[in-house]
Every structure is written in C-alpha cells, then in structure tokens.
Amino acid sequence: MKKTFLTSTTPIDRIILVLALIFVVWSYKHYWITPSQPADYALIWVTNQVPKQINLQHEQQITIQGSLGESLIEVKEGQIRFMTSPCHNKQCIHAGWLTNKGDFIACLPNQISIELPSIQNPQFDAIAY
User: Fold this and answer.
1) What is the pTM of this model?
2) Facing residues of 112 across strands?
3) The CATH number of the domain covering residues in 41-115
4) Band of the pLDDT at 4, cuts 50, 70, 90?
5) Where are the domains of the chain?
6) CA-only gyration radius of the chain, Å
7) What pLDDT is stored for residue 118 in this prediction?
8) Of 1, 47, 51, 92, which residue has the fewest beta carbons closer than 10 angstroms?
9) What DSSP character marks residue 123?
10) What is the DSSP string of 30-91?
11) C-alpha angle with apex 52: 124 to 70, nearest 5 degrees?
C-alpha cells in the first residue's frame, strides 16, 4: 500500500505546516514588498564629494564630472535618469527612470550614483566603489 502525504502525516504535522506557510506569506508581504511612494528629491553621489541634493519637481539637466568624464543627468516630472555617460556598457542609461523612494542606480565605471532616499526604510547603509 502506497502512502500519500495525508496518510503519512498526523493532524498536528499538517497544522504546523499550514501555520509555517501562513508565516512565510505574511513575512514576505510585511518585510519584502513595500508600497511605492514617489520621491521628492534625489541624492547624486560622486566619489570623494559631498552628495548633491536635487529637487525632482524642477525640470533640469545636470552635468556631473566623474572619474571617466561627464555624465548628463535629466530630471523631469518627478523622475531622474542618466542621459549620457562615458562608461562602456551604458547600463546606467538603460536602467531608465528612477521614480520611487528607495530606487537606486550607479554608473560604477564613472563612480556616480543616484539615490532616491527612503527615510522610513533605508535599503543601503553605505555605498563603496
């Protein structure tokens, strides 16, 4: 006679498994999924410089000097992105717009990063190149 899951476990085993599953789902929703909140400002970090705070409500283009050359950053309609950068793969440009608190992007070769800080739930305690 072949044993199945229901016949090989006791009722207490099944209760513990259901409670564990409920706990895992609750933990995922509570600690991993955070609601998106639009950011008001961005921080632009450049190696060995004080971070520059940018208001996302004012449309502008900002030129930042990095270790490889100049990167052009665009701010428009509460969003920010890399427009141009002297790095090879251009992954910072392909990442697109940052809009929500906690978003982050870096151009590692040029040592420039953009962060939309989330004071309630910081995702980074330090940034090193």
Assistant:
1) 0.66
2) 46, 107
3) 2.60.320.10
4) confident
5) 1-33, 41-115
6) 22
7) 78
8) 1
9) S
10) III-----B-SEEEEEETTSPPEEEETTS-EEEEEE-SSSEEEEEEETTEEEEEE-S-SS-H
11) 100
